[in-house]
Amino acid sequence: MLNLIKKSAAASLLIGLGNFALLKLGNPIGPIIFAFGLLGVCYLGLNLFTGKCGFLFEDKLKVRDLAIILGVNLIFGYLVGLLFRVADPTIIEAATSKTAGWEFSIAFFVKSLLCGVIMYLAVKMYKKGTPLGIIFGIPLFIFCGFQHCIANVITLGVAASFSWSLSLAIAGNFIGSLITSFITIDSQRAKTSNKKNK
């Protein structure tokens, strides 16, 4: 349990560092540097909700463990945001401006779904031996304006605010990742079946 919590907290910190760069530098450099966060999470085997939820059935994860990962990511992520707020007040305006545009809407939910799709594919590609999914996928979802729940809670911490849109980001990331997992698993099974039939 303690190890699970520590790895989840560490993942929040790494994503926080990427998000700090995004708020500090903006486009186009920020989104590219943000990829460092997920690369670190995957390389070190840390627990990030958006990188784990799509593998709930595929890797036979325990629902309880996934819930703990989410809880720690959210709590520690918000605290990291508050820490960044104190460390560099110049990023507060960017965070406040960003969160002001988050609405509890269908559009926001769809953007969260699409982020979930990219997150699953990025981690899946890393597991298959290439970091390209992360290197290109992270800037892709940021440039497209898709919503990542853990990055969002860190931004809320920097802004010292709260938004119910966070619940949409969590649900969207989760559902988008799972749907993509089911689709790709079926595709992999079909390829395996075709090879056996040849």
DSSP strand tally: 0
Examine the coordinates and then state which fold CATH places here, giving the name of the CATH topology: Glycerol uptake facilitator protein
**DSSP helical segment count:** 9
Helix content: over 70%
- Give helix and strand order, one letter per element, not per position: HHHHHHHHH
- What is the average per-residue confidence, as pLDDT, rounded to a whole number? 93
Q: Report the CATH C-level class.
A: Mainly Alpha
Q: How many structural units, i.e. domains?
A: 1
Q: Tell me the radius of gyration.
A: 17 Å
Strand content: under 5%
Q: Sum up the overall morphology in one term.
A: globular
CATH-level-2 architecture: Up-down Bundle
| CATH superfamily annotation | Glycerol uptake facilitator protein
Largest sheet: none
> Which secondary-structure class do the elements indicate?
mainly alpha
Question: Which spans have pLDDT < 50 for at least 5 consecutive residues?
Answer: none
**Cα-to-Cα separation, first versus last residue:** 47 Å
